[in-house]
Amino acid sequence: MKDGGKTITICFTNNKGGSGKSTSCSNLGYELSLAGRKVLLVDGDMQLNLSLSFFDEETALDMAENGKNLYEAVRHKQDLQDYIVHTPYENLDLIPSSILMSQVEYELFAMVQREFILKKCLKTIVEKGEYDFILIDAPPTLGAWVINILCASDFVIVPVEASPWGFFGLANMFDFLNDIQDIADASVMGVLITKVDERKNYYRHARGILDAYDGIHVFDTFIHVDSTVEWAQDNSKPVAVYKKNTRSALEYRKLAEEVIRYGSGKR
Q1: Does the pLDDT value for residue 165 go beyond 60?
Q2: How far, CA to CA in Å, does 81 sit from each of 19, 40, 66, 77, 91?
Q3: 228-267 per-position pLDDT tens digit
Q4: CATH classification of the domain holding 163
Q5: Which of 87, 90, 186, 223 has the fewest CB within 10 Å, making it most exposed?
Q6: Is residue 1 part of a domain?
Q7: 226, 195 contact by CB (below 8 A)
Q8: CA distance 178 to 168
Q9: Domain annotation covers residue 2
């Protein structure tokens, strides 16, 4: 760990699909690694999007089916230290997901202290302190598995698409976070506005909606619509690897700077 502090675990969550959650998680992770931070990504979604951000489809599916993935670790309550996969990039590792993550709610139902299974699976990794950041990509739901992820996290980043439907259900998301405060200590690091198209001037409206939420921090950085992101995803690469100086790559770099400042207490 570069700064001598504890590992910071951040969950990316939004119950609304299409918010740019996995994209933001993967690209922030890469930019943090470029800044010299050691990062562990945890793919908590059955759609495998975080895994596919760094590995081609064949490799991601192989990891999803070979028994060394998050689903198998959670269902057997095993130490995740043995499930870490190195990505092609320095300082950036991954715990891959499985399409069987759709069954994790069922698996958790019969477990004692089921809200804390993921936290226990990550315990050794966190205590060893080898990673500066652990970033967890949560599925777009509000069930027991997301509660598990929140209980394992220090902070929450909520990506929100700058569109009329992007804010649908956001109040439910914040109500959900408030309702589980007794068991989950994760606090909202900030709302990240994504897919901004300034030709439509919806960003200002989006910002106005978010400013109405008392005590919710909104990141100064926002992410524009950028076709390079889709091309990078199609090639299983971070956007800054696919095209170094594209606008979204620079924006994720600025976001990483904000997150590092926040983590060090310099807000």
Answers
A1: yes
A2: 30, 11, 16, 12, 16
A3: 999 999 999 999 999 988 999 999 999 999 999 987 765 5
A4: 3.40.50.300
A5: 90
A6: no
A7: no
A8: 18
A9: no
Residue 3 resides in a domain: no
Query: Distance (Å, rounded) from C-alpha 138 to C-alpha 25?
Result: 10
- CA dihedral sign of residues 17, 195, 57, 34: negative
Three-state DSSP class for residue 150: helix
Query: pLDDT at residue 3 above 60?
Result: no
148 near 116, Cβ under 8 Å? yes
Tell me: the pLDDT tens digits for 196-238?
887 777 777 777 878 877 788 999 999 999 999 999 999 999 9
Q: What is the pLDDT of residues 124-147, one digit of tens each?
A: 999 999 999 999 999 998 888 999
> Please, are residues 135 and 42 in contact by the beta-carbon 8 Å criterion?
yes
Tokens 């596919």 appear where?
52
Amino acid at residue number 265: G
Q: Are 131 and 39 in contact (CB under 8 A)?
A: yes
How much is the pTM?
Answer: 0.94
Dist. CA 191–CA 196, nearest whole Å: 14
Q: How many domains does the chain have?
A: 1
Coil vs helix vs strand at 254 = helix
- Please enumerate in sequence order all residues whose Cβ is within 8 A of that of 54, keeping only pairs 6 or more positions apart, or say none: 26, 41, 87, 88, 89, 92, 94, 236, 237, 238
Which residue range is the domain that position 181 belongs to? 8-263
**Would the CA dihedral through 158, 159, 164, 169 be positive or negative?**
negative
**Tell me, what amino acid is at 213?**
Y
Residue 23's SS3 state is helix
- Is 43 contained in some domain? yes
